[in-house]
Amino acid sequence: MQDIRASLERVRERIARAAARAGRRAEDVLLIGVSKAVEPVRIREAVAAGVPALGENRVQEARAKIAELGRAVPWHLVGQLQTNKAKDAVELFDLIHSVDRPELARELDKRARQGGRPVEALVQVNVAGEASKGGVAPEGLGDLLDAVTKLDHVRVRGLMVIPPEARDPADARVWFRTLAKLRERHGLRELSMGMSGDFEVAIEEGATMVRVGTAIFGPRPAAPLKEPRER
Fold first, then answer.
1. Is residue 162 in a domain?
2. 229 within a domain of the structure (yes/no)
3. Secondary structure class of 122 (helix, strand, coil)
4. CATH number of residue 108's parent domain
5. Were 2 and a residue from 166, 202, 216, 218 both cysteine, which residue would form a disulfide, CB within 3.0 to 4.6 Å?
6. Which residues pair with 159 in a beta bridge?
7. Alpha-carbon distance 127 to 100, whole Å?
8. Is the whole-model pTM more than 0.90?
């Protein structure tokens, strides 16, 4: 079984080297340990080893883990969010990475207003137009951001992307650059991009958050069945 403390240290070293190549500071990149399908005992090891934030893909799985592990570090939702799960997401997560449509933003606003605190969010952009992935199209980003600015309880901090799968991490560079340009165009701060296979390239292109699972926790078991899509 993978030594989490050693793995986390190797990931930190890779982040530092990538940041140095880009003339950036490693501390300006938030490492999110993606704990999807990882047992709570190993997540606890990662927190003890100093992982600064945790990311989950599914609301239901996160609820059980947060109940058991608590909130020693922030929890991020890095997977797609169904509108009917908005209430739970508002209660559970410190940052939601996957706002991609006005109706979801409105539902988050409603639930946040009821809960008495704003929602911190990123907008997911489908830079490559992949039908299998969520995210607003780049040409629709401006309209979505305009719609969200009219909401009192949703705060958009930046953008998120999941680029097309590629054998060579460098192939993702074009998509990371596209997202960075969109971030600059719209005056946003955060860029959530880069996973275990390509986070170094993402950092070179400006990522402020990287979502790393396998490189910290090792290979996961077979993925559970997806929750029904009710958007």
1. yes
2. no
3. strand
4. 3.20.20.10
5. 218
6. 123, 191
7. 12
8. yes
Which amino acid does the sequence have at 191?
L
Task: Supply the range of the domain harboring residue 10.
Answer: 4-217
d(CA 43, CA 1): 13
Q: At what angle do helices 141-149 and 102-115 cross, to 10 degrees?
A: 20
Q: Structural domain tally of the chain?
A: 1
Burial class (CB in 10 A: 0-12, 13-18, 19+), 83: middle
DSSP reduced 3-state for 16: helix
Mean pLDDT computed over every residue of the chain: 94
Does the residue 63 lie in any domain?
yes
Q: What is the pLDDT of residues 12-38, one digit of tens each?
A: 999 999 999 999 999 999 999 999 999
Q: Please return the burial class of 159, using the count of CB atoms within 10 Å of its CB with bins 0-12, 13-18 and 19+.
A: buried
Q: Does 229 have pLDDT greater than 70?
A: no
Mean pLDDT value across residues 91-113: 98
- Give the position of tokens 């039908």: 131
Identify which of 136, 143, 137, 121 has the alpha carbon closest to the alpha carbon of residue 189.
121
